[in-house]
Queue: 4 jobs
Job 1
Amino acid sequence: MKKLFVCALAVAMVFAFTAPTMAADWNFYGSARFATFSNDVDTKVARVESDTDTQWALQGNARIGATVSAGDVGGGFEYGSGPNLRKLYGTWNFGAGTLLIGQTYTPIAEFYSNQVVAADNDLLFQGMAYHGRRGQIRLTFGGFDVAFVTPVTQLTLANTAGGTTVSTAVGVDTTLPQIVLSYKFATDMFSVKPYLGWASYDFTTGIPTATSQESVDSLVYGLGGKVNFGPAYVAANFMGGTNLGNMGIAMATASNAIVDASGKIVDNDSMGYAAVVGFKASDMFTIEGGYGYVSSEVQYIGAKQEDTAFSYYINCVINMAPGVFVVPEFGIISGDDIKNAGGVIGTTEQTETTYFGAKWQINF
């Protein structure tokens, strides 16, 4: 009798826990993405010839995942080809708004560009705003989002004293999560999205003593938007801020704060802008071009360092069947000289990559 009761209880528990899942609506999806590019890399160093390489490989952002909904509760997951976890989150619509917990894109992520090189670069490191897929608790009320994001502390601050570096892996104290706000207003013709983010943590610099502590504060602000003119469209983004690298904002320039020779944290001011123009010639062809630029500047004892980078491209999306398309593209991803006044950090030249090729993609 006791064994029968245990079996009956086990069966009841299985049905109790699986019933919501059985009633849920699961939608699985996948995206196979393959890059075929010729990359001509110029290191801009005397007596060193440029290097041309062929990329013929599955992109790291190829993915498979699912979204699920069961009444007011939902969620989703997504894995990349690493394999790596890209998304894992749950949502709850409580009437006045929606609560999200887990890992997904933060409110500072708007994909206006369709640049496909470098695993869909999308000008994200050259002027478009991108905060990544991060752990967060987020509230959404219509077009307004407020997210409390996992702090970023495992970054390295450049140390101008002796050219060494100081790791943040030890001696970091965090009190608050990152706070990110955004509001998106959209109609059929246009959309506009202002955003704001803040983060702070205390950091043991080790200069001049092993217990010297400073505070690293980050601030990002910006505005993005898109306008549709029938088959044509224009989109742009502008952003600025302080110590964006320490917050995890994507930048092609060195945007972290710096520890100067006295052990003080010196802020790094950054800005960026990007714009794209596109035209849908037909259901089969869409042409797009874009340009993005970022710069960072830090001033410390006796010196000023400026770092800039840019990228531009032109491509054409060729749809061969529903979910099947290829994107031929030509462009340049470049970094300008790192210019210094005072010379504490020597002037360097970054690489410039001229590329052409195509991304092949099948969504299923």
Job 2
Amino acid sequence: MIPAAARAHPALAYLRAHRGRPATWSDRYTTMFGLVVAAAVLGRPVVEAIAGLARHADPTRLGAGLALVTAAYAGLLILARTFGPVVLPAADASWLVTSPLPRRAVLGRTASLLLSAAILAGAVLGLAALSVFGAPDRLGVRLAAALVLGVAAGVGGMATAVLAQRSPAWDTGLQVVIAGVLSAAVLAAVLGAGPGRRILAAVSEAPASLGAAVAGVASVVAAFLLRWAWAALDRIPAHRILASSTRAARVTSAAGALDPSMLTWIMEDAHWRGRALRSRPWPRLVARLGRAPALAWQEWLRVGRRPGRLMALLGGAALPAVCANATGGETGLPFGMLLCGALTAAAMCTGGVRRDGGDPALARMLAVDGRAVMAARAVLPALLAASWSVLALVGIGAVGALPADGWWLLGPAPAPALAAGALRMARRPPVDHAMPVIDTPGGAVPTGPLFWALTGVDLALLGSLPALAVLVTRPTDVVPYVVAQAVAGAGVLGAYVLVAGRAAR
């Protein structure tokens, strides 16, 4: 609720009057008609999905499903903390926030949008949690409790993120909450994979009245956090709102230009801006190996200076195993996550290659052979991809989705091909929007973003064909496929280093 003094302010009244044209009866009719059509289309599937919740939970998949829901909630908190969450358009942030206008009145529109997003995200998480636990009895009570609990979690988390934007102490508390939620996800996955699944089964069989009581307590806590967050809007420092608004504007610009590569630079610049780094002597071995390994050493330093991101990446290797446990190994989704995660691990340490692609003149001034530099920079991506793949395959084997003997050898084998794909991804130019648009039965497909997205992924898939064949056919003897995959991966990486290194000279 905007205070009366703020509503009467002439500047705010002028802005509200000129923010957009007033809604007409035609606009209201179009909105209502769209809502009625959406309800008619989605009504029956939603009713059938809710009716399908009246079942007992599967104990073998309970832990994995709960871990995925908990991890999704942690991702929501991380996203809210990363982007503000209180943001304004660039013009409003640079003018209104630094003006003597009431801060709460200026941020009221953003606060209402955040509240709506938190309610929607919380309702989705509540339904997802109910689909994991099931509703053996009293479906209506359990459904209402799940929705209230999910909305309370979403609103409470968003309110905590707003408080964290105001105070460093609350920001530290939010980081502790995120770490606790991620630990709960890991604990749920561990309990679901072992004898502790009885505990989760007992929770799923708890009385509906207990779930309603927990939802009531959570809603009270969320209401208090929401009240504190609303009071804190007046005391959020202007520089924090300006910083979050700048990040949001850059992300919006990147999305509007369909150039996802800008997001990488945004995140890198936002992390390193204003940080004081200590100068350390390089290892003697790097200096003795030559100039090419010295240029590649910056990637090792970059990874070492962000241990949290590295630990989060390696911890994410458990996601394919959790997904395999949740689906019972009946789909190829865990193996798709395996390849995507390994390629992401390889692409995490290609910043030097991206900078060389953006400024090739500087790379030529270094007077270093391009092939030697490319080969040296491929070592770290290959090691990270191999480590991630081995951890993921061990986890998938531990849940019984793969045979336990020898399958972890598939982790290091495709790593060179994944490193080649990651290097090719780092060297791709911006999206070419001048490329033609293809008309398909599903709609128009712009080829510029499509070719940009497939650049590098095609090379990684081509070099990983033996590994894909193993995951599809599941042979009894995996060693010949591992040898073939090692040869194919090394060949793809070698060919790419020769071609790309010659072009970089």
Job 3
Amino acid sequence: MAKLQQLENVFIGIAGMIGAGKSTLAKSLGEHLEIDVHYEPIADNEYLEDFYRDTRRYAFATQIYLLNRRFQQHQEIIWRGRSAVQDRTIYEDSIFAKMLAEAGLMDERDYRTYLELFRHMSNFMCKPNLIVYLDVSPERSFERIQTRAREMEQGITLEYLEALHNGYEDFISDISRLIPVLRIDYDRFATAEEMAEVIERDYLDHSFLREASRFDPVKQA
């Protein structure tokens, strides 16, 4: 009974690099805890192919589209009032937007607009109880991208993933001050099911995890 009460209305976000295994873990965690699973909006993303084909032209539109979809999903989790796990959090979008701006692929004016919009949205968001960060090296991420062979991802370079990994390290350092983060080395576990058991155990053992104020991506800029 105590276990069920601790897991009541729990909101867990899965964070990690491209190809880190977020969807697989989200599915296993949802099944293990018997809670709703909300997957990253990829299949019906009408901007993604254009983004990979002409990043500079579609960077801002793609980031706004993803921000809108993730905000919609985030609010749906809250409105349903049921425990849930989310495949990639809305907070991670700021990593990609920042990288695009720093690489000159997003206009500085557009980046400021993106940050302001995120800040306004964040006033209406309830934070996850826990973020699970799948810590995967750029090399392993690149290997998995090549293995799953999604056509639109074939232009992703190791250099891009190295920069992305650095962005994630900064992000985790910042977000962990506001939302409890459990860092997981995926290679230490044989299966996603085994990892789900570890996450459940660690979450229940740390029921004292503190509440914190909202995440402000401006601090990332």
Job 4
Amino acid sequence: MRGLVAEQLQQSIAVLSAVAADAALHDKLVVAAQKTADALRSGHKLLVAGNGGSAADAQHLVAEFVSRLVADRPAMRAVALTTDTSILTAVGNDYGYECVFARQLEALGQPGDVFFAISTSGNSPNILRALELVRNTGIFTVGLTGQTGGKMAPLCDVCLCIPSTVTMNIQESHLALEHIFCLLTEQMYFGE
């Protein structure tokens, strides 16, 4: 069992090291943060969605924006589309689960907002439906996914692909990039 622990930690480190060495990925993350800081500065918001562990990431990321990541600062406008069980179950029941995020974006999204879509496979039907809905609406789209980007990659203005096909390693890197995304956005927004 100790060998399995070491093996899994080495696999995690290898993926994070590949992310750390990917300058193009870093550039995309900076663009996503700048677009988000610009949106927030102009009175718009960040909307975030994902399923399962990615739903937890969506909520975690939004909590960092609304509360704080490192330093005290004013709250930043962000909404997790994964938290309202009444909306999720009503839309899932009445329209189908593939519509749970699209319907909320239809209600809450405005030109100038940023939609941050998280899917380790890049093929989650409800994420794809949401990205398709906001295409050409003036909502900037950021995707956070795995190695291939899946079907969501061409639907995103910026797609951050983690160089792995192993879900847990993708999610570990997602969390690191989500924290850095928040940190960059804070610094760009508040000029710190």
